[in-house]
Design brief:
It is built from five helices and five strands; from the N terminus they run αβαβααβαββ. The chain has about 140 residues and is α/β, with parallel strands linked by helices. α4 runs parallel beside α5. The protein is elongated, with a radius of gyration of 20 Å. InterPro entries: DUF7768 (IPR056670). This is DUF7768 domain-containing protein.
Length: about 140
């Protein structure tokens, strides 16, 4: 994208030009941030699980990644208690998860939905990492 020294009306605008040039220069310095799919429980204690999912996203962000947590987005407009919508949500999850470099699994239990996501990620050859207490990476068996 080329930054123009003139505004939309055709007048010379050095202030806007300099600001936009700096923004473009800084954006090029940004390091690569991989997309990571956040896989954690939603059902059960929904309120607590949503709180934890937000914390998991913050951890991923602080680790230099871009977190994707579909279970924070989809319940905003889909009903998890409706079997047809739940199946559609899982389908959407798997499509979006396919765009991510890794799947990060959190929590001390693997829900049915999480198990499906993990199996699909492994089948696709996506990296799967497991995190335990205090966000320490653990083995799959832990």
């Amino acid at each position: 994208m080329s930054i123009n020294k003139y505004n939309a009306e055709g007048y010379y605008d050095p202030t806007a030009y300099e600001a936009l040039t700096r923004i473009e220069r800084e954006s090029k310095k940004m390091p690569f941030r991989p997309l990571v799919y956040i896989c954690s429980p939603y059902s059960g204690d929904v309120e607590e699980n949503v709180k934890k999912a937000r914390e998991h996203c913050r951890f991923a962000l602080n680790s230099g990644c871009i977190p994707i947590a579909m279970h924070l987005l989809l319940p905003q407009f889909m009903d998890d208690n409706n079997p047809k919508e739940r199946d559609l949500a899982l389908f959407i999850d798997l499509v979006i998860m396919g765009k991510c470099q890794e799947v990060w699994v959190f929590g001390d239990r693997i829900s049915d939905g999480m198990a499906i996501e993990i199996a699909k990620a492994k089948k696709r050859g996506q990296g799967v990492k497991y995190f335990g207490f205090n966000y320490k990476e653990v083995s799959e068996d832990a």
